[in-house]
Amino acid sequence: MLFRMSLNRLFWLISILLMLLFLVLIGRIVSSEWAVYERSTKSMPAIRNLQLALLAEEKLAAERGPGNSLLLQEPDAAAKEFAGLDQARFASDRALASLRRALQMQAVPQLAPVIAHVASTEQALATMRKEMDLLLALPVRQRDVAAVDAVLQMMARADSGFAPAIVALADVAVRSDPQLSDGLEGALLASSLRNIAGRIGAVFTAPVIAHRPLTSQEIYAFSRLSGEISQLYSGIELQLRPYQDNPVLKAALDAVRDRYLGAGLGFLNELFAIGRSSGDYGLSAREMVVRYVPRMAAIPHLRDLVLAEMLQQARRQNRQAAFFLVAATVLGAVALAIFVLLMQVIRLRVLRPILDATDLFVSLADERFNTVIPMPRHDDEIGVMMRVIHVLKAHSLAKVRLEKQREEMIAQLQTLSDTDFLTGLLNRRAFFAQGEQQFGIAQRYRRQLTLILMDVDHFKTVNDRYGHQAGDQVLRVVADLCRRHHRKVDLLARYGGEEFLLMLPEIDLSQGFAAAEKLRCAIDSCDCQLDGGEIVNVTASFGVVAFECDNDLESLIGRADQALYQAKHSGRNMVVAAPRGKSDETIIFA
Ligand SMILES: Nc1nc2c(ncn2[C@@H]2O[C@H](COP(=O)(O)OP(=O)(O)OP(=O)(O)O)[C@@H](O)[C@H]2O)c(=O)[nH]1
């Protein structure tokens, strides 16, 4: 079916199919670029959310230090530490509020559970603080151990209750851009390391304040937490391996190793050694905090740098995705435009000229030469084809003209070969050709047919007296008279010299006789004026014969000749009808 289809239809079918294919491909490319762009657009706020959440977590953990410490001290003993607690509470409130506001502003349904977590953390924090403040107002000995424990539990719950919010936000961030997962995992591990670092430091708060050795529970907690710290550090190193070429991150990781794992943890190891023996630490809780806490700063610094790097990477990817999206859309549109242009060029410069050329060839083959052949507009193969069609048209026109001329010439020759040059009547040969036909019809269908043989009387005398040319003139006049007296269906010929033959189909002898008589009278009464002005009067004799049972035309003419002979013999200027059958009786009219 495809092979039988017209070129025009095939062209449109292929064009539409290619166009659809093209649109699908472009749509696919643009939509996948759009997906990348959309994902990268979402990953930036997701990282910022995680940043704020990790900061809030850090601040929450930081609130535990002064809280734990004050629970072991008299209400009036440490005014500076109360100020530190207020500052820590203010910082964690501010961090939680910033996170909540940021989450609420994004108005993403997916973040609703996280907002709920933040709100419940804020609530739990407020309750815990109220309980703690009641205890801190009492002297140490009046503080109920169970109540202190309950506050410590509430602090831990407020902290751990916030963890699901971080997990959920980390999940959203990783899902928005899986390429960032290593860095984000590294930041999360750094955040956990910061928590553990705080908790391992807190192990020494009570023993340092009480100047006592570590309990076995504290020794166990220290050992477990130090193991977790080295595991977390290895984890961070592993996750940040893809960024080992980044000098800033590398320096921050080295700082964690040197300042915290080296100096910070080294300081705690010293306290641990003392705590396992004498419990004589030689420093206050405040001094311990001042010496230990600044060394932890390298950890959140690393976390923040990693998150900043992730954010920058997400921004870069977003810009790149936007560029690719615009480029894919523009290139797709340009490619589509080029495709449409190409099809248009093929249609206008190849297909249409071929179809036009086909029509032109058909019209040339049909000899319809009035079809206008357009002039070639381009100097290409189609232009050559158009020029060739022009040449073919010229050749065809010339050929047709020649054929016409040839046919006209053949017709002229035919006429000439049938015509007597002097009188313009049929000649003897043409008379026989056409007369045989009429004779055959009469013979076959038993139809009437009459033959008149006429001879100008004493024509030799005309020639002799006026000259041969005058004789010719007379013969032309006689021929004209014969022409005027014969019907269209009759055959009129110059039989030879001054003899004329008339064949009258469907005419019987008496009608033929009458016609001959009429012609005889016309000749007899005609004054034939010669070029020299002389008037010549001629007469003619007629032999009339009707077809009966003649075998051929010659015998019919023979009988007419006999009648003519008789007319001549009887005195000329008369009509003699040949007798019917075998009768010798003739009709003579003069
Ligand atoms: N001018 C001219 N003369 C012709 C032509 N053909 C024949 N003739 C002449 O016609 C004459 C015929 O003469 P004849 O046969 O003797 O007959 P006639 O003089 O007509 O006498 P009858 O027939 O007996 O009446 C001859 O002199 C021919 O030369 C022709 O085409 N032109």
Outline the secondary-structure elements:
Layout: H1 7-71, H2 79-106, H3 112-136, H4 145-176, H5 181-202, H6 205-210, H7 216-239, H8 247-276, H9 285-296, H10 298-365, H11 381-418, H12 428-445, E1 449-456, H13 459-466, H14 468-484, E2 491-496, E3 499-505, H15 509-524, E4 528-529, E5 535-536, E6 540-546, H16 553-569, E7 575-577, E8 587-589
Helix pairs in contact: 1-2, 1-4, 1-5, 1-10, 2-3, 3-4, 4-5, 5-7, 5-9, 5-10, 7-8, 8-9, 8-10, 10-11, 13-14
Guanosine-5'-triphosphate (GTP) binds at residues 422, 455-460, 463, 468, 471-472, 475, 497-498, 568, 572.
What characteristic shape results from the CA principal axes? Answer: rod-shaped
Mean pLDDT: 90
User: Which regions contain 5 or more consecutive residues with pLDDT less than 50?
Assistant: none
| C-alpha-based Rg, rounded | 67 Å
What is the strand arrangement across the widest sheet? 2-3-1-6-7-8
How many structurally independent domains?
3
EC number: 2.7.7.65
InterPro entries: Diguanylate_Cyclase, GGDEF_dom, Nucleotide_cyclase, Rev_trsase/Diguanyl_cyclase
Pfam families: GGDEF
Keywords: Coiled coil, Membrane, Transmembrane, Transmembrane helix
